[in-house]
């Protein structure tokens, strides 16, 4: 196995500048700071960076005092409905050998429509001790979030001795023509930091008052990995599930939200938030830290249908209870239980007055094409299922689902309105 540094961030559609590790026979993870947007001292002032760095940017010439290979990453649309672009750079270990040090990356991103107001980012990588005869490459990466548009990137890396590696490139963040209706979460030509973790409240959400078109929804989310045998919830899975929640929350018709986060394998509710204007994502993230995937309690070992019973109890309490919202929405990866909840048991629960939906997060629907236990369960309530495999699926499914909820609410209101004497 070649000796090399590499980022220890999870494999996903985005490249995170996360942890730098030494891969010999094991990975040694050492902390590194994520890329940080450089802000002016006062609003409206220009951003201050080192004159030497600015000179390199303005020259446009590639420098190789540190012999590095920079590979730009194209702008890909993520489940969070933001474009993610970035870079990967390879540096021979022989160039950074020694007792440790620091590599600093500075890059500038300019929109083609506003080249006079670029965004600057800085990023630091802590280098562990490297033997003088070490072979292989150090692999570093970083990312930036973009709105739709054309951009130019100027990039440099320097060590403590001010040796420089620099590069520049152009990139396009463009929706596929069939995806043009998608309302992205960053405006055109916008440049932003990539969030270090998904459980951050969205301060940009400002929903207008829609009166009778404001709807209340209950979300039941199965926070489980795509791979049922995985002992950890991967960052890629977490990002997608949080993005589903944020996509629903950001819809202008959503007035109130309640949330029940559960884990099917643990057979327990991990977090509950009663009806509120917005989801408390930091509290949700904190609660999920307590999950213990891959472990089974002694009390559960003797339960042959523990997961099935848990799902049935969850439906009975959260779906079939009184005081319904305008819709109940399940979300999560496929829950392939040994036994489905019997349809007769579900029918005995009774009718559900509001519509029921299932947003099934499934990155590879061809590999797992059959229905899961939640799919079978919502069938008893004439529920609607959406498969979320790509970002476009999330946007179109959310839009169609909200329209269905609005129609259902309007129909219920019309049915409950008293008939006037003149219309008899």
Q: How would you classify the helix and strand content by structural class?
A: alpha+beta
Helix content: 10-25%
Strand order of the largest sheet: 15-14-13-16-17-18
Total beta strand runs: 18
CATH level 1 class label of the largest domain: Alpha Beta
**Over all CA atoms, what is the radius of gyration?**
25 Å
Known CATH architecture of the largest domain: 3-Layer(aba) Sandwich
Percentage beta strand: 25-35%
Q: In this structure, how is the largest beta sheet organized?
A: 6 strands, mixed
N- to C-terminal distance:
84 Å
Overall morphology? elongated
Number of helices: 8
Poorly predicted segments = 1-32
CATH topology annotation of the largest domain? Rossmann fold
Query: What count of domains describes the coordinates?
Result: 2
Q: How do the helices and strands follow one another from N- to C-terminus?
A: EEEEHEEEEEEEEEHEEHHHEHEHEH
Q: If you average the pLDDT, what whole number results?
A: 84
Folded structure, characterized:
The structure is a single chain. Mean pLDDT is 84; it is low at 1-32. The chain is elongated, with a radius of gyration of 25 Å. It has eight helices and 18 strands. It folds into two domains: 4-192, Immunoglobulins (Immunoglobulin-like); 211-295 and 304-413, Rossmann fold, CATH 3.40.50. With 424 residues, it is of the alpha+beta class. Strands 15-14-13-16-17-18 form a six-stranded mixed sheet, sandwiched between helices. The protein has a five-stranded antiparallel sheet with strand order 4-8-7-10-11, covered by helices on one side. Strand 14 (254-263) and strand 15 form a beta hairpin.
């Amino acid at each position: 196995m070649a000796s090399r540094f590499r980022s220890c961030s999870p494999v996903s559609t985005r490249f995170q500048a996360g942890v730098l590790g030494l891969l010999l026979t094991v990975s040694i993870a050492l902390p590194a700071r994520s890329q940080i947007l450089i802000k002016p001292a006062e609003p409206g002032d220009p951003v201050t960076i080192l004159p030497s760095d600015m000179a390199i940017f303005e020259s446009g010439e590639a420098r190789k005092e540190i012999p590095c290979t920079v590979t730009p990453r194209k702008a890909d649309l993520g489940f969070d409905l933001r474009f993610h672009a970035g870079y990967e750079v390879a540096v021979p270990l022989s160039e950074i050998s020694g007792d440790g040090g620091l590599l600093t990356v500075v890059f500038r991103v300019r929109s083609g429509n506003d080249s006079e107001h670029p965004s600057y980012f800085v990023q630091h990588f802590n280098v562990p001790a490297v033997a003088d005869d070490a072979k292989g490459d150090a692999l570093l990466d970083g990312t930036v979030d973009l709105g739709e548009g054309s951009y130019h990137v100027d990039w440099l890396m320097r060590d403590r001795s001010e040796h420089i590696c620099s590069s520049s490139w152009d990139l396009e963040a463009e929706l596929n023509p069939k995806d043009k209706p998608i309302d992205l979460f960053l405006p055109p030509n916008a440049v932003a930091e990539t969030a270090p973790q998904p459980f951050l409240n969205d301060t940009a959400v400002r929903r207008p008052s829609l009166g009778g078109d404001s709807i209340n929804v209950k979300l039941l989310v199965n926070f489980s990995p795509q791979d049922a045998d995985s002992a950890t919830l991967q960052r890629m899975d977490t990002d997608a599930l949080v993005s589903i929640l944020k996509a629903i929350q950001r819809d202008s018709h959503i007035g109130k939200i309640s949330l029940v986060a559960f884990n099917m394998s643990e057979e327990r509710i991990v977090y509950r938030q009663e009806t509120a204007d917005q989801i408390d994502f930091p509290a949700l993230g904190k609660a999920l830290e307590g999950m213990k995937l891959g472990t089974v309690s002694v009390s559960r070992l003797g339960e042959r249908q523990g997961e099935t019973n848990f799902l049935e109890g969850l439906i009975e309490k959260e779906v079939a209870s009184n005081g319904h919202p305008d819709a109940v929405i399940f979300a999560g990866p496929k829950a392939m239980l040994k036994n489905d909840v019997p349809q007769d048991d579900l029918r005995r629960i009774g009718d559900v007055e509001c519509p029921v939906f299932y947003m099934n997060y499934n990155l590879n629907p061809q590999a797992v094409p059959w229905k899961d236990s939640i799919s079978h369960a919502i069938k008893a309530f004439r529920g609607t299922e959406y498969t979320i495999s790509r970002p476009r699926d999330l946007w179109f499914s959310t839009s169609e689902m909200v329209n269905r909820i609005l129609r259902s609410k309007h129909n219920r209101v019309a049915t409950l309105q008293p008939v006037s004497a003149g219309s008899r």
